[in-house]
Amino acid sequence: MYNLVLLAARPPEWTHERFIAWWRGEHAELTRHLPGLRSWRHTDIDAALEPRSEGWDGVSVLSFDTAEDLRKALQSSEWAAAVAQVGDMRGRRIAVMGGEMEMYGG
User: Could you give the CA distance from residue 63 to residue 21 in angstroms, rounded to a whole number?
Assistant: First the structure.
């Protein structure tokens, strides 16, 4: 799998609950249609392990078969629609991409 991982924080005027409801609802309705998307996992962050990790609301992992499949998704009209919906929300995010390796499958 090749993943797009997004760590996001809500806009300052939104509550955590509103942001998660939007991300898993309205925003998901657009995002889930990305071409080549194989799976999508979302974590609602409710606690930070340490102070330097505070201030984040959620993590999304969008999985594709290959890096090329992700690149195609990022060039799609579906991606453009999802980005347009976010608009100038003023939240924060970190977005990274990379290959996945399962380290433990318990």
Answer: 21
